[in-house]
Amino acid sequence: MTRVYRQGPYTLVVKEAAGIDAEVTGRLVDCWRASYARMALRFNPHAAQSVHLEITDGYQGAAEAEGNRITLSASHIRARPWDSDVMTHEMFHIVQAYQDFEGPQWAMEGLADYARFRYGLYNQQGGWFLSDFSPSQRYTDSYRITARFLVWLENHIYGRIAEDLDQKLRAGCYSEGFWATVMGRGLDQLWSDYGAKPEL
Predict the structure, then answer these.
(1) What is the pTM assigned to this prediction?
(2) CATH 1.10.390.10, applies to 1-97
(3) Phi/psi of residue 157, nearest 5 degrees
């Protein structure tokens, strides 16, 4: 079954496998309505205006985004019906729209989980939280670990870190010198400062 949803200039097209609960689909649509336009306006006003979501039994992972299309595993969402904000993470990849990406993967995925943390509707119900800090971690661990570091930097040092990092990655001009230029300290020093007092 295919359904089309509209919100201002934005469109969501949902194609779902048989047997997906309407409430589950409704929460995925809620996530799109609540966050896609806000993320696009904040990070990339030129992001795709149309998002295509396919919930399919033919995908073995959890979810992935490519171009303006999100593929979501039907078995994953049946098993975790409140994991709706996997949609928010994947929508942020659409907003990122990095072409010929050569930046660090940990930064790209860390930003997507940062977006899930900032814009997610159902993270608590889905049992999704940022990872607590541990001395064994590194900023390169990606996803929730990197996302928490970005939130800490945003809260304590520089409120536009997510926007500026995203912009550098999209422009293809990221280098490790970015951190010292923006915040006056290198990445390893920032991580050390974070580890010394990691409270958000």
Answers:
(1) 0.97
(2) yes
(3) -125, -50
